[in-house]
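Let us work through a complete example step by step.
Step 1: write down the sequence.
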Amino acid sequence: MRRSLVTSWALCLVASSTLVAGCQSPALVRTARTLPRGATDVSLTLNAARASIGEVNASGVAIPVRDFNLPNPLPEVMIDRGLTDDVQLGLRLSLGSGLIEAHGVLRFVQAANSTLHVALAPAAGYRVLGLVYGPVFTLPLLVTYDLTPTMSLNLGPLVSFAAYSVPRSLRFGDALDLSGDTLYAGGGVGIEFRPAAGIHLMPAIEVQRSVSRRGDLENLPVIDLLFLGITLGWSSSG
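Step 2: predict the structure and record it as C-alpha cells.
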C-alpha cells in the first residue's frame, strides 16, 4: 500500500512538472499600436513566472505542491514588420522556453483622436523543450490607450491552446501517457514608454490558468501562472 502511494505521488508530480515545463510564454508582449507600413521592430523580452499547482490526489490522499518560480534568463527575440498601417506580422524565438512562433497584430479600432487602439494578435508556434513538444496557439485581444504621446496603457484577455506529447522514455507504459491538450485563459496589463528615437520599453504582468485538460491522465491539478516581464525594443519609422 505504501509503495503504491509513493508511486502514485511520483506519477502525479511528474505529470504536474510536465505540464509546467510546457507552460505558455507571456502573450501580452505587444501593443495594439501597429507599425506603419514598411516599418520594422526588433524587441527583446525578459520574463519570469511563478507557478501555483493545486493539490495532487494520489490514492485518495491530497498532496500539496509548493509554489515555485520559473525564471527565463534567456531573452525572447521578436522581429515585426508593418504590412499596412493596421496589420503587422512577425516572428518570436524563445530559447528559454523552446518556442518558435509566428504572430500578427490586426488592428480594427483606432478612435478617440487615434489614442484608443484595439487589435487581435493571433499567434501559432511550436515548442520543443526537454519533457514536452507540440504546437501552441494563442489569441490575445489587445486594448491600448495612449495616456500621453510617449506613454500607453496596454491590457487585454487571452486564450491559448497547447497540444503536446511526451518522449516515450518518460511514459509509464501505454496505460499512463502524460501527453494531452490544455486550454489556458488569462489576461495582463502593461505600461509602454516611448522616450525617443523609436525606442520603446514595456514592463508587464500577466496571469494564466489551465481551464481544460484532455489526456489519458484526466485528474490533473489546476495550474496558475503569474508572469512578470519587460520588453525593450526599437522601431524604424518606415
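Step 3: interpret the result. The two ends are 68 Å apart (CA to CA).
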